[in-house]
Amino acid sequence: xxxxxxxxxxxxxxxxxxxxxxxxxxxxxxxxxxxxxxxxxxxxxxxxxxxxxxxxxxxxxxxxxxxxxxxxxxxxxxxxxxxxxxxxxxxxxxxxxxxxxxxxxxxxxxxxxxxxxxxxxxxxxxxxxxxxxxxxxxxxxxxxxxxxxxxxxxxxxxxxxxxxxxxxxxxxxxxxxxxxxxxxxxxxxxxxxxxxxxxxxxxxxxxxxxxxxxxxxxxxxxxxxxxxxxxxxxxxxxxxxxxxxxxxxxxxxxxxxxxxxxxxxxxxxxxxxxxxxxxxxxxxxxxxxxxxxxxxxxxxxxxxxxxxxxxxxxxxxxxxxxxxxxxxxxxxxxxxxxxxxxxx
Length: 344
What we know:
CATH topology of the largest domain: Rossmann fold
Distance between the termini: 58 Å
Helix content: 40-55%
Structural class: alpha/beta
Number of strands: 13
Number of helices: 12
């Protein structure tokens, strides 16, 4: 491996001069600087960032710890994070936990060993244990998409409650009275908030909240398939379904097709989070859309600001509003008030 001494030898200067040029840390004559830069390029010299980090106490690295990078929502969030980080000179490590606390703990231990400057965390549970682990090690943390319990920490998330509320109100406005919820894991804040929006929308329209219409499972395609199949077997009277995320919706569609059910002719379907055109060439699902790219950008900007400020500031809880887009996956059962939202 090429060292700073090798560059100095080829350029005919002292190693301290090479350090000043590469770190831009002191005056060097222009002709000497050019000679050092030519030597570094010729030798393909790569600075030792680990050694530099020990001197500066910074590594210029961030970590984005996600639950499922295959979900297009998280891919878009990750792009927002990377764009902001890159613009201010940070590199980003991407970690995928699959909603698994053990895997999450392994990643966090590895990131602490690498001395990352900050972590953007989508916690596998709402317990707050992972956040407390990072804070005890003096690592700056921003929690994405979810809330954690009993921890003072920055959070950036979408408006799960109101997104769910609008979707279910849309279904009731179309005349639906037997509306099911395919939810995520019960211990996650986003699952609880979307379930609360679902329940409140029913009550606001004078409908009875029926817990037997709720199924809980993983935020995955397989989870959606299993929940929808179970619902069809036990509640064939359902006329509409609210899927709590896009992957659950894809699984629900698989189960409906297997059962010979058509959307929206037999069952109307609304979804939290959209599917991009790369997945669904003809967008047709009525959705509550979160500003995924903006969420990633906002979280990264907040984390970088925290790293730059020496004195601790009060934590922030930033909730970004979304919007409902009405498409073709819902239909009217009875003449009711006009549906709300952006129609496509």
